[in-house]
Design a protein that fits this description.
The complex is a heterodimer of chains A (493) and B (187). Chain A has 493 residues and is mainly alpha-helical. Chain A has 18 helices and no strands. Chain A has one domain (10-489): Cytochrome C Oxidase, Chain A (Up-down Bundle). The chains are: A mainly alpha (493), B mainly alpha (187).
Chain lengths: 493, 187
């Protein structure tokens, strides 16, 4: 089953995939600038009005997750299309809908001052104390709905294609191998397993998201229609947490594909690997409840489940992936370059970034830490040093195998600059959290300001390094197809 | 050959009989979740007959199924709004429109469903899944009486009806994606 049966000309899709990565990369860099501005404002270095700060917060959160998900979906599509027949037309629709959604969100935030943060937590979109009006809220909410529709189309297509090739999503996760009905040699490739998992969790998340978005839209249009706020919060986080979480599960495919090629070793699918991905599929759907640990009205069993499964979800896929990556690389004589280096760095980021989350998922800790900057400390490390680094790794990989654009010393400097800068940004958030600095506050007491200023300075280096990565990829896009490489077609999974 | 015509016309005629019509419309859940779907089903059978009789009309007007399915979604969404349900009981023209538009949506559905591809079908299905969940939530949770013609208790019963349908739809999706479709296709 692991034979390459999908798209016979992967290189012909590189322009399409490249476009999603360029848009994703540029938006990520732009969102970093908003992050710096927020930290400078919190540090008392610049003056930003409160209303403007929350607009920055809204666009930063929404833009970062949206852009990373867009680029990660491109990575997943690139590799998955080698094993199943995906529709190019659907990917183009996906890109178009995401762009329309992004434009609506940007206009809603900056032209109509919508500033509820990405959480659009009911009933805030409708009750803004005149900070924004109906149009701004509708532009943002409908924009998110269109963006989500684009992603839903993409996952319907991946699900359809996986079912057509492998028979069912259960078989895509390798359940027939786990149950012993099929030999391990016939197990689906890692790309297919990861893509199946993402298809399941993100389709569920997007349906939950569509429901709560339309509910918010109804409430904004006619505030006399009210809903249960706790159910709305559950659906919002069932959408937001799962969707954000799934980015790393899409992006990690590049690690699975790339490291074995570089190390010239096989990274075989094992039963443990399949079990781990099935466990993560279930856990990822359920652990959003760790966002509800402060909601006293939640059923107790859900809160306990949130803690227990958050502990459990931190382990299966991460352990098999990180351990597998170490095994593949150890004493392999691997040739390090930007792509392999970034892939390996992302393993470190993922592993380290999970730790503060597991700490925060502990109910007694959560009551103290969840509303502090400890949580941004977790997700900046997890996403910035994990998922996003995987995306940059793929950019260098694609540039290497499909063009004659060479890596320079500047790229290597950018590598270390990025690693140190994102680590510093994350660390200042964690330190701020330890100092009990509240998150999502436009104004800080003097005692909270120093880490924010430090983070802003680190952020400047982060933008410089990210720009160098993106410029390299844009150069690739201009010189695409100037080099044929066996690596492009080589199968290792 | 005339079987679909007979079935479709019979359903439509039965639904038009005044005591049956009035009874169905007196209970909110039966109005929304029995009468309206039956009108669509009547249209489905009539459409089946019409397609075999005048295929060219359908080829010319709904070649790939997309225009038809968009109209179907628009009509059904319109009739899912609480206000339209209310207006149908208050204004005879609305009632007439209901008895015309929903069978037409059924005709459009039977013609379009076979023409749109798998992706389109799944998208429409998931669209209705989230829409039914939302409608269930709306009717269950609304603290106010949404329709003039129905009490809050009736709204809540309808809300549970929508939630029940959503649960069935979720179960269907789960069984579909986790059972082996390749073996089914081969047989």
């Amino acid at each position: 089953m692991s034979t390459v049966i999908g798209n016979n000309k992967p290189k012909s899709n590189n322009k399409l995939i490249g476009t999603s990565l360029v848009i994703g990369g540029v938006v990520i860099a732009a969102m970093m600038i908003f992050g710096i501005l927020m930290l400078l404002a919190q540090g008392g270095v610049i003056s930003v009005s409160d209303a403007m700060f929350y607009q920055f917060l809204t666009i930063h959160g929404t833009g970062m997750i949206g852009a990373a998900a867009l680029a990660a979906a491109g990575v997943m599509w690139y590799f998955l299309s080698r094993y199943v027949n995906l529709s190019r037309k659907v990917f183009i629709w996906f890109l178009a809908l995401v762009l329309i959604g992004v434009v609506m969100v940007v206009v809603g935030v900056f032209s109509f001052k919508f500033a509820s943060a990405w959480t659009f937590l009911y009933p805030l979109p409708a009750i803004s104390a005149s900070a924004w009006g109906t149009i701004g809220a509708l532009l943002y909410l409908i924009g998110m709905l269109i963006l989500g529709t684009g992603f839903l189309l993409l996952y319907i297509d991946t699900g359809r294609a996986i079912i057509k090739t492998y028979g069912s999503l259960g078989k895509g996760l390798g359940w027939d191998v786990i149950s012993g009905k099929k030999r391990l040699e016939d197990a689906p490739p890692k790309v297919v397993v990861a893509s199946t998992m993402v298809t399941i969790v993100n389709t569920s998340a997007l349906i939950a998201g569509a429901t709560v978005l339309i509910m918010n839209i109804i409430n904004v249009i006619n505030p006399s229609f009210t809903f249960d706020p706790l159910l709305a919060k559950n659906l919002t986080y069932a959408f937001g947490h799962i969707f954000a979480n799934a980015i790393i599960y899409m992006a990690v495919i590049v690690v699975y594909e790339l490291l074995p090629k570089y190390a010239n070793r096989k990274w075989a699918v094992t039963k443990l690997f399949l079990v781990a991905w099935t466990m993560s599929t279930v856990f990822t759907l359920l652990i959003y409840t760790h966002h509800m640990l402060m909601d006293f009205a939640m059923p107790k069993w859900m809160l306990i489940m949130g803690q227990a499964l958050s502990y459990a979800n931190g382990l299966p896929v991460l352990v098999v992936t990180a351990y597998g990556a170490l095994q593949v690389v150890h004493k392999s004589g691997i040739k390090w370059d930007m792509a392999s280096g970034l892939a390996f760095l992302s393993m470190f980021g993922w592993t380290v970034g999970v730790v503060p989350a597991i700490v925060d998922a502990t109910i007694v800790v959560n009551h103290v830490m969840h509303n502090t900057k400890w949580v941004p400390g977790h997700f900046h490390m997890y996403m910035g040093l994990g998922a996003v680094v995987m995306l940059f790794s793929f950019m260098y990989y694609l540039a290497k195998i499909d063009s004659n654009v060479k890596e320079s010393k500047l790229d290597k400097i950018a590598f270390w600059c990025y690693a140190l800068a994102i680590f510093s940004v994350s660390a200042q958030f964690l330190v701020s959290g330890a100092l009990s600095t509240p998150r999502r506050w436009a104004i800080h007491y003097p005692g909270w300001m120093t880490p924010a200023v430090f983070g802003a300075i680190a952020g400047v280096f982060l933008v410089i390094a990210t720009s160098i990565f993106i410029i390299h990829f844009v150069r690739y896009m201009k010189n695409r197809g100037t080099l044929g490489s066996d690596m492009n077609e080589q199968e290792t999974a | 050959m005339k079987k679909p015509l007979i079935i479709g016309s019979s359903i439509l005629l039965i639904l038009l009989i005044p005591p049956i019509r009035v009874y169905m419309e007196s209970i909110m859940i039966i109005h929304m979740l029995v009468q309206l779907p039956l009108l669509i089903i009547a249209g489905w059978f009539l459409g089946d007959y019409m397609i075999s009789k005048i295929p060219k009309v359908f080829i010319l007007s709904n070649d790939n199924g997309v225009p038809g399915i968009i109209l179907f979604v628009a009509i059904t969404m319109f009739w899912m709004l609480p206000r339209t349900l209310d207006e149908a009981l208050t204004f005879p023209m609305y009632e007439l429109f209901k008895f015309v538009s929903l069978p037409i949506s059924g005709i459009l559905l039977v013609d379009s469903w076979g023409k749109i591809n798998d992706l389109g079908r799944i998208f429409i299905y998931l669209n209705y899944l989230s829409m039914f969940a939302l409608m269930g939530w709306l009717y269950l949770d609304s603290p106010i009486q949404i329709c003039n013609n129905y009490l809050v208790d009736q709204q809540k019963v309808l809300g549970w009806g929508f939630i029940f349908i959503t649960a069935i739809m979720v179960l269907y999706v789960v069984q579909y994606v986790f059972t082996d479709q390749s073996e089914l296709e081969e047989t």
